[in-house]
Design brief:
- The protein is α/β, with parallel strands linked by helices.
- The chain has two domains: about 140 residues, Rossmann fold (3-Layer(aba) Sandwich); about 290 residues, 2-Layer Sandwich (Dihydrodipicolinate Reductase, domain 2), CATH 3.30.360.10.
- About 35% of the residues lie in helices and about 20% in strands.
- The chain contains 16 helices and 17 strands.
- Strands 16-15-14-13-7-12-11-8-17 form a nine-stranded mixed β-sheet, with helices on both faces. The chain has a six-stranded parallel β-sheet with strand order 3-2-1-4-5-6, sandwiched between helices. Strands 9-10 form a two-stranded antiparallel sheet.
- Strand 5, helix 6 and strand 6 form a beta-alpha-beta unit.
- Helix 6 runs antiparallel to helix 15 and helix 10 packs across helix 15.
- The radius of gyration is 24 Å and the shape is globular.
- The chain starts with 11 loop residues before the first strand and ends in an 18-residue tail after the last helix.
- Bound molecules: NADPH dihydro-nicotinamide-adenine-dinucleotide phosphate and the ligand O=C1O[C@H](COP(=O)(O)O)[C@@H](O)[C@H](O)[C@H]1O.
- The site of NADPH dihydro-nicotinamide-adenine-dinucleotide phosphate (NDP) has 18 residues, from helix 1.
- Keywords: Carbohydrate metabolism, Glucose metabolism, NADP, Oxidoreductase.
- Its EC number is 1.1.1.49.
- Belongs to the glucose-6-phosphate dehydrogenase family.
- It holds the Pfam family G6PD_C.
- This is Glucose-6-phosphate 1-dehydrogenase.
Length: about 500
């Protein structure tokens, strides 16, 4: 076990609802293994799993361990040692979490636990979020004894639209205070996402240009190579817009567009992010028609195999009009961003996995340089925040091309995390769990920010609920033609989706 650069989390019981589910085995347990290995959690962290599956703790441990073996998590001896240490501190309660009996058992467990601190993680289908919070509260489990804490961590999706998100917030806040609620958005656990604030606020040469005097437009892309696969039921009811935009893409947008907070405490940051999300223009129906397009992938080859069309995916209705791709042009109505469009796009079964923020600066006011046939225009400066894969930053500038003739050449100053830091094998949830355990809400969404995000996408949800079909696009492509038209009618182009370092391809 290594030594962390922060104090280990305080003693607590981590109660996982949905302990035998997919999220727990694929992400939550591997995260706890990583944290054990790095010393972020110690022997005073106990895990209490709760699930409907019958059996005792051995049933749970067997399931978890057999998954860890097949996933390769046990290949590394240090991870294996961390798991051996962790598994000794796992307990299990079998029962239905919509019934009070389970909560009596949890209460009994906690009353004998070494610490009164508890964090309850809702790794359960979203229709249960409100019920579990209510039952925890009714059974007295959210009452904080002097000096101890009780917190809940809620997975996504947080609501299905604006009205349901408002209703869920109201229900939660009826039973639990905002300071006890940790709404997860796993993008906030990514180093490159957290780095957006540092890139901006630790660098005068960047932040000084960060406004509509110098920035022409912003693009935010989350392209995925993966298709809908076995998630047909969930995805057909959700679609690309709900799945990715009001949560993950808006968190990126908020980091890019927020004003500098006057401190890095959670409330200052969440206040600034909330202000930006509330400044997103809420379109009329006519504006939504012009500023949003959607697509669904057809059948075709991708990554060396034949992918069936989205509508042929198991558990998807053959006449489904759910989108697997969405592109939007949004406006942030603030002094800083007036007139700067934010183009967002995300989709499944695309050309490559590529999540990035691209800031395109305005052209220089007067270009004296002679134009050359091969490069007729002086390209604009661009800053590319490569969120994943190959995390890094690229700054595209023009230089003099060596030689007697005065020619410019675009080059990229690029930084890759992997070249400078050992970022290791992380799930991305480590920082989120740590902050949950120490009680820092910076990386979690607040009720007002969530509702503002839903308000901005609601006009598109309403429009597409009227009917119509998403435009087709081929698997392995960059999305439907209508997405190109959306940006090209403004005289701009999408940044290439390739998932490779941008700086090295001139
Ligand atoms: N899986 C993932 O990669 C991701 C998941 N999420 C979110 O995490 C949450 C959990 O997802 P996931 O793990 O995939 O879902 P699963 O269905 O795999 O896990 C939920 C678990 O809860 C159990 N359960 C259901 N009803 C009850 C009940 N009444 N009482 C006790 N246990 C019950 C389920 O049992 P049974 O199977 O028998 O019904 C299952 O073991 C969801 O909100 C999802 O949106 C977010 C990001 C990624
Ligand atoms: O929440 C979700 O995110 C993933 C993409 O996350 P990433 O960290 O792999 O980029 C997405 O595939 C999934 O559909 C969505 O529910």
């Amino acid at each position: 076990m290594s030594t962390p650069d922060v104090a280990p989390a305080p003693p607590l019981t981590f109660v996982i609802f949905g302990a035998a589910g997919d999220l727990t085995r694929r992400l939550l347990i591997p995260t706890l293994i990583n944290m054990t290995r790095s010393g972020l959690i110690g022997e005073d962290l106990h895990i209490l799993g709760v699930g409907i599956e019958t059996g005792g703790v051995d049933m749970l441990l067997d399931r978890l361990e057999s998954f860890l073996k097949t996933s390769g998590d046990m290949d590394d001896p240090e991870r294996q040692a961390a798991w051996q240490s962790l598994r000794k501190r796992i307990s299990y309660i079998s029962g239905d979490f919509t019934q009070n009996g389970v909560y009596k058992e949890i209460s009994d467990y906690l009353s004998h636990a070494p610490s009164a601190n508890a964090a309850f993680y809702f790794a359960v289908p979203p229709q249960f979020f409100g019920d579990i919070a209510e039952k925890l509260s009714e059974n007295g489990l959210m009452n904080e004894a002097t000096g101890a804490f009780r917190r809940i961590a809620i997975e996504k999706p947080f609501g299905h639209d604006l009205a349901s998100a408002q209703a869920l917030n109201a229900r939660l806040l009826n039973h639990v205070s905002e300071s006890q609620i940790y709404r997860i958005d796993h993008f906030l656990g990514k180093e490159t996402v957290q780095n957006i604030m540092t890139t901006r606020f630790a660098n005068m040469m960047i932040e000084a240009l960060w406004n509509n005097n110098y920035i022409d437009h912003v693009q935010i892309t989350a392209a995925e190579l993966v298709d809908v696969g076995t998630r047909g039921k969930f995805y057909d009811a959700t679609g690309a817009l709900r799945d990715m935009v009001p949560n993950h893409l808006f968190q990126l947008l908020a980091m890019v567009a927020m004003e500098p907070p006057n401190s890095f405490d959670a409330e200052s940051i969440r206040n600034e992010k909330g202000k930006v999300l509330k400044a997103l223009r809420v379109y009329s129906r006519e504006e939504a028609i012009k500023n949003g397009v959607r697509g669904a992938y057809t059948a075709g080859p991708i990554a060396g195999r034949d992918l069936p069309a989205f509508t042929q995916t198991p558990d998807v209705a053959p006449d489904s009009n759910t989108e697997t791709f969405v592109a939007l042009k949004l406006l942030v109505d603030t002094w800083r961003w007036a007139g700067v469009p934010f183009y967002l796009r995300t989709g499944k079964a695309m050309k490559a996995r590529d999540t990035e923020v691209v800031i395109t600066f305005r052209p220089v006011p007067f270009a004296q340089f002679p134009r050359h046939e091969s490069r007729p225009e002086l390209p604009p400066n661009r800053l590319i925040i490569q969120v994943q894969p190959d995390e890094g930053l690229d700054m595209e500038i023009s230089i003099k091309s060596p030689g007697l003739v005065l020619k410019t050449a675009p080059v990229s100053l690029d930084f890759r995390y992997a070249d400078s830091f050992d970022i290791g094998k992380q799930t991305g949830y480590e920082s989120l769990f740590y902050e949950l355990f120490v009680g820092d809400q910076t990386l979690f969404q607040r009720a007002d920010g969530i509702e503002a995000g839903w308000a901005a996408v609601q006009p598109f949800l309403d429009l597409w609920a009227e009917g119509g079909k998403p435009d087709p696009y081929a698997p392995g492509s960059t999305g439907p033609a209508c997405a190109d038209e959306l940006i090209e009618r403004d005289g701009r182009k999408w940044h290439e989706i390739d998932g490779i370092p941008k700086g090295r391809k001139f």
